[in-house]
Each structure stands twice: as structure tokens, then as C-alpha cells.
Design a protein that fits this description.
2 helices, 2 domains, disordered C terminus, 4-stranded antiparallel sheet, 4 strands
Length: about 120
Amino acid sequence: MKKVIIFALLATMISLPPLQAHAISRKTQGKIILTSILTGIAILTKLLEVKDRKNVEELRRKLGTPDHVIEFHHGFDKIRIERWKNQEFTFKNGVLQRPLCQACKTKSDLHKSETNIFQPKFIGN
């Protein structure tokens, strides 16, 4: 990954003309800045994706094969729910998602609206 970052920095530096040669217009400066920001975001996203995939591999290695697996598509996203004896994990596009209610330990502690993620939650009476 360090090689990708170094390559991106070198490519950006090589593509920039020397400042002594001619002045760079504001429009070109904006394009260069936008390109460098998007490159940084892409590199950060890739680093986080690799980290998440390693965490999922470690989790699967620790727990073994799941008892039940449910896969479905929700729009462009691929949702996979894996259930072991007493644990259930949701993966969205291969990335582990946080539980709906981290403070609650059992499903009976959940509010009715928290058991269905597509149902709106109403506050009050």
C-alpha cells in the first residue's frame, strides 16, 4: 500500500509543470487540487477496505463456518447475514456492519422499530 501512495505522489509531482515556466491558471489549480483530494480519498478508502476484509477473515477463522447464511441484494448492495449458535453478523458488500443496538444484549430489549431496519422509529406516544 505504501508503494501505491508513493506512486500517486510521484505521478502528481511529475505531472505538474515547473512554476517558473509559466503561471498556472486558477481553473487548472482547482483541477489539480481536486484530483489530489480524490486520490487521497481513494487511497484511504482502499486502506479501510483492506483492514475491514482482514477483520472479517479473522472473525471467520475464529468462529468457523456459520450455521445459517442468508444472502440478498438491496439495491446495489449485497447483504449477507451469517448466524452462529448465539451470534449473528451482517455483512454489506463483504464489510462487517455494526449491530443495530450495541447497548442491548438480547432481542427482547430492542424496541419494536429497531427489529426492522426499514420501519420508521417513532418517538413519544
